[in-house]
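Sequence in, structure out.
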Amino acid sequence: MALAAVRDLREFRDSVSAEELEQFETDVLAGFVLARASAGLADGTIRGDVGHLDQMRSWFGRPLWDMEPTDADGYFGTVLRGSPSGTRLARAQALTTYFLFLELRHKVEIHRMTGRVVECPIDEMDRPRGSKDAALRIPPTEPEIKTLFTGWGGELATCRTFARTARNYTASKLMSQVGLSVSEACELDLADIKWDLGRFGKLHVRHGEGARGSGPRERMVPLINGADRTLRWFIEDVWGQFDDDPGGSRAWRERAGWCGLGPRPGRRPSCVRRHGGGRCCRRRGPRRSGRGRPGPDRRPRELRAEQSIR
């Protein structure tokens, strides 16, 4: 086998102007955004990654594929030294994902244009330590949850603002019964309650939380663990305490005009518009203890029955 001298291919690469390199960098970033969108990530997640990359690019002053491990050491060890750990972790993850995209899609092209082999500057030595996960939370036991809602429901008979307190009580109890998150429960409408589906009825969660930034995911949740009774009590005994605002379709929205919450500026309460005020205002909701005769007991039926046995 004959031997031959091997010459460096970088001597024969085409010369690239600064304008062409800048245009190529812009096209690469646009391709990165499109690739992340095709992976199903939410727009907010993509905007966050691009924002992190833009801040690192402004500090570095050159295309990010020229960044060395020593540059990453200086940036994360000096510039972001006093930043929260979540910021450093998110920025390091964005940079790692961007270099992974460069290695998979543009490694050969970048080497042809610049003579540089793309390699992520963040390794095991300078990777920011920590975790973005929340601290360990031990969920309460079933007796503790029962004690919480029993005491909370008992306060409905003496609370000053019945509708608002009953709304918060119902939303929290619904989350504990069917496993909704706070954001999912806040986006519910009355039309999302499907009484005719299944044995107990179902909830149509239209704004369900997605995994890994994939965006909202719809799902149907059965009204188990007494969630159907909770919602029926709220609709029959609490929903009528709020004003009939056509624009307020969400189940938990504080709609203006209810007597206990005060009218919207420049607008009379609904009881004044309908009945001219008077008995309607006095009849709605329990009163504060020690002031006149108490209002009707509007606690959930099962709670009233349970405490009457005691």
